[in-house]
Amino acid sequence: MELFIKESLKKAINYSNYKALMKHLAENHKTTGIEQTEALINYTKLNERRMKRWDKTVKVTEAIKADIQKFNKPMTWLVITESWCGDAAHVLPVINKIAELNDNIDLKFVLRDENIELMDAFLTNGGRSIPKVIMIDNETGKVVNTYGPRPSEATNLVNRFKSKYGALTPEFKEDLQHWYNKNKGQNIVADITEILNQLSLVISQ
Hints:
Helices cover 58% and strands 12% of the residues. The chain is an alpha+beta fold. Helix 7 runs antiparallel to helix 8. The protein is globular. The two termini are 26 Å apart. The model has no long low-confidence stretch (mean pLDDT 95). It holds the Pfam family Thioredoxin_9.
């Protein structure tokens, strides 16, 4: 697994370059990934607009900023994603906002379909669900935690719906987008802050 991570990190790009890639794809009627369908291309265009909006509007309270800035262990957060992924468009800007608050966090991005061995080492319930954040201790090279593909509250909503109806419907997916818009990234901020606090406790022991 560590070999997959090292190989993927060689290809990884930062958030600024990932956004530039999204912009280029949207302007040229393309998408990342193996499939170049009209639907996925349109999702990429929509997601590029969503990410721009979230970059401008995500807020982190002063109390949570202080919590995030206390974390003092150098880490790399390697995110597996694709431009067409709706969850990624909501999650990535928030992850970036958190990483910007702490110089110990080095945020990098790779594409799922170009890094299948890496993806298959970090499946969610047996599926190649994205986005997936792999948190790596820079000193040891070990994976200390993962996050994704969705924030905890959204995950609970999805799991309850699947257990009742078997699969996600277009109507539910639309409702999930409304949930993201209403929550404004705060569940993600809370989830990640909790992970950082837990890692700080482990490190201090």
